[in-house]
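Sequence only, no structure available. Ideas?
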Amino acid sequence: MRNACDLTRHINEIVLVEDSDTDAALILRAVRRLRIANPVRHFKDGLQAMAHFNGLQRSANRELVRGVLLLDLKLPGMSGFEILERIQHSAALAGMLRIVLSQIDDTQSMKRAYDLGAHSYLVKPFLQDDFYEIIEAFPGYWAFLQRSPTLVTAG
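Reply:
I predicted one. Tokens follow.
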């Protein structure tokens, strides 16, 4: 068992957008094994997730939403690419760390995800240790944003 990873000081929420119950269960198990105390909001549909993000943007009141997005690319309603595109330039969501977890493993799709604002990309099935390393690096991401507030507001 790895050390607990306390993200509560750094983030508002973790959002998992994954339509596969099996994949969602594996991801949630990995989060629990890290003993992350933050709640995880799970959406199985891209449109539901985007409605949530629209609500966050409206209620942010110039506050930066600090969160983690764990995003599949193949989703009903709206693809992960479309979600990334729509939130890419949102000042309110600039503090959301975006991690793609997808079975799509071609270079063109990976490049597109990064071009649309993804910070990391793991191909499913991914190694648990790779997932853990990314999760454990989260606090450093927000520490960097606090030192560089102009990067957050740029868009």
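The first helix runs from residue 21 to 33.
Hope that gets you unstuck.
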